[in-house]
Amino acid sequence: MKRFRRHGHESHREKLKQELFQFNKASQIEGFPNVGKPSHLHQSFLWRILWLTVYDGEIKKRYGAPGVEFMGLHDENAAVTQVHFLAHQVELVTLLDDNSLHMWTLRAHQGLSELLEIGRFTLTGPPGAPPSVTRVTAVLAHSSGELLLLGTEGGHVFIVEVPGFRELEERNISLDQVASSVPDDYIGRRNLEHVEALQENPLNPNQVVIGYGRGLMVIWDLVKQCALQHIPATQQLESVWWTEDGQYILSSHSDGSYCRWIVGEGGVDEDEKSDIPYGHFPCKAISKIVQLPTENGPPFLLFSGGMPRASYGDRHCITVIHSKAHVALDFTSRIIDFFVIRDGPQHKGHPSALVVLVEEELVVIDLQTDGWPVIQTPYLVPLHSSAITCSHHVSAIPLKLWERITAAGDLQKTHYSEKPWPITGGQNLAADPPQRDLLLTGHEDGTVRFWDASGVCLYPKYKLSTAGVFYTDADPNDNMNSSSEGEWPPFRKVGCFDPYSDDPRLGIQKIHLCKYSGYLTVAGTAGQILVLELNDEAAEQTVEAKIVDLLQGQEGFRWKLGPTRLDMREEPSLFPPGFQPFCLVQCQPPAVVTALTLHSEWKLVAFGTSHGFGLFDYQQKNTVFVKCTLNPSDQLAMEGPLSRVKSIKKSLRQSFRRIRRSRVSLRKHHVNNAAKLQEANARLEAELAEMELAPVQRKIEARSSDDSFTGLVRTLYFANTFLSDSAHNTPSLWAGTNGGCVFAYMLRLPNVEHRADEPVTAQQAKEIQLMHRAPVVGIVVLDGHGVPLPEPLEVAHDLARSPDMQGLHHLLVISEEQFKVFTLPKVSAKMKLKLTALDGSRVRRAGVAWFGSSRSEDYCESGLVVLTNQGDLHVVSLPNVKMQVQYPCIRREDVSGIASCVFTKHGQGFYLISPSEFERFSLSARHVVEPRSLVEAPLQSASSNHRRSQPDGVSSSNRLVGQDSEDAESAARRVMEHALLNDERVLQEIQKSLEAD
What we know:
Residues 667-694 form a coiled coil. This is LLGL scribble cell polarity complex component 2. WD repeats lie at residues 434-452. Keywords: Coiled coil, Exocytosis, Repeat, WD repeat. By secondary structure, the protein is mainly beta. Among the domains are: 40-122; 126-275, 7 Propeller (Methylamine Dehydrogenase, Chain H); 285-375; 427-481 and 501-628, no CATH class; 842-934, no CATH class. The strands form 17 sheets. Strands 22-23-24-25-36 form a five-stranded mixed sheet, with no helix packed on it. The protein has a five-stranded mixed sheet with strand order 37-38-39-44-41. The two termini are 41 Å apart. The relative contact order is 0.10. Residues 1-9, 475-481, 641-650, 663-671, 687-699 and 939-986 have low confidence and may be disordered.
């Protein structure tokens, strides 16, 4: 009977786990992809969808309207080098650096679009041919939607039918065919090099221009299979553009020049044959050139590169020329690719926006508004415009605070264009976010950026800069990229990515925002703590500074090699609407702030460094108390950031000393006190038996008090609980250190009517030293019902129930190795859970979260979310500290990703997968944020509904391939057959792998 009850209880618990916990890691990647190597940018003009590939080959994304996102993953571990849309279809072809071609399509499944691979192909070439013969260097997706032209390193052009990837050998263009028709007077006839570019005649799809590396361009007729014209350029070719009227071909070259060639009789326009836009001195290559007509007036000419090597060789520029307007858009990172969005039928009208992908951001320029301003991007925002140094998430922002932050942010965006986002493809079917969430990121340049994290995309709302409070080495008016009247080239800085920091001491290390009061506190690298208040109006004020000595005058310590504190501005400063600083606490020594917490109801802020911690009353602007946590052996904490050599030497020295001490101790016990040693061993075995170690656990290794940074403060926590006796609760402050020590202080707060006059006092009440001295990473107080205490002002705003003050409170201390529960006020150990396992797991992050049932709106549980140094996520139940679920999340080698993780109050989390991207995960079955998008497929195929009208009335895409016209049904059937073949191949591979296992 007992066994039946136990089994039933376990079944209920497993069922409840399914209702509460569900791990979803692939829900969303926020930010700008890490495109450190060449990537590709393309747009489907018919569907208004932006396609972005990342060179590492693993992830590629398609973007449309805000919230419309798709992601695909190649099976091959190869890099994506090119991507091309098929005309009039929701299909595209990718080229990998292993020379394989892959076809993808957007297919509807259960009302949502999915990005699926439906075919793959690799050029084989003739038997015995060298790899260069089939190594693809240029791809042209023909306007028929049924052909791919593949230019290769060997100079050949292969023609492949899609979607079946059938090579049309009889229509291939060999290098010998081209070379035999090259005029004898062309220099380098025998070595044309690789195919650099392929372009189609906008008016006649039967004609393409083939551009070779050495400069020769050949206009080839695909039906007659012969060369129609040779364009004998002699400079190294970079790119080719066929103008929309079909009359000219533009070519750009490695010497910074571009040429205009007449198509047809005459061959070359002598008046406009060549132009070097930026002078007679040697210039960098023009890597891409585009010319687009306007409705009335001169065309737009755009090209990337071409800057003088000696003077501006380090600039990354795209030049835009229209009529008398001439601007060199100056970016702060390398240009990857660009294209132009146009209005009108078939998107052939006036150029409306320039989309530029650079190495660190995506920039969109409004070409229809005077001055060509930037359009605010709703996604692909560079989170790392300055390097991210910390993160802080706030859930369920009240509407009033949300509107005030939004209003302050809107005032900062006046330089942006008012035009809407021009990429509008697809439909966002995701439900409206259930609440308003903010993600705050601290940056190296002293800024704090507020991001709307409610839905699929991280959207910038507001930016706070703390640099104005201090004197810095750089003049805020000094801008090396600012343009002046008559400057040549006419530079204009665009984009927000700025890799340079005026002063690394400005870096933000800790952030805490109270969403109910509007108070914000931020702490930096040089020991500075700023307290700020939200103000809707600009204000000129002086920030009052207080110096706090954490050493309390101890002798024998001196601050060496560490950063000096920042010099504060003494005169009043004008602060714009938004968060405005009114108080500054400066720690001495000016070490990095390692812990920070704010209690806006009590008007107190607590802070900690490697030297100790303190409590500051920001209403009366005075220090309540300071506690030095330094151990006399903590020389590293005093000396600041020493060199790695010195740290290694000290660590080795300490290790040898410990080994020597342990050997001496063992020898002494063995020789002189054998009986005592046996007694100690017996006592140890008894203690181990009481621990009931599980097979996956090991005995925790005790740390020596001589280890460095034992006094570093890891966590701070405010609680209204019982410290002196079980009848009187009192405000308290708890602090945990790197050496496994917990300090508890009782606080006495004056009555509300005397709060501004009488001082806040503190008295140390408790001190706990963990046996194994493991670093304390979290502290939580549980009320009489075993529920974590609510946040400050949460009960006053009727967003949480009042804590139970009748039952017994418990203290949960989270160390790197275990979770231990103590009773209050006696602080006696009640229960514990050891996390440390055979693989050496350590707790790196811990936070309280609420998990709602996916089946019952009224039921929820609180739990402890834990991330280990192995990258695993655990959920621990409260108050009985039992392990609920465990999921692998982050690679154990990704140390920076683990260190950057931040949890939300509803079982989600963010961590950096690159310096510029957050990945969002969810442990809650109820709260999952993921893109839900739909792109409707065309009703008719390109061959039946999108015929290209030709001047002679006989050329057509179907005649080009030698096939009869297909209707929509047959075209759709053809695509489905290829998809089914591909699915069958996948099933066969799965079956083989299962048989092998």
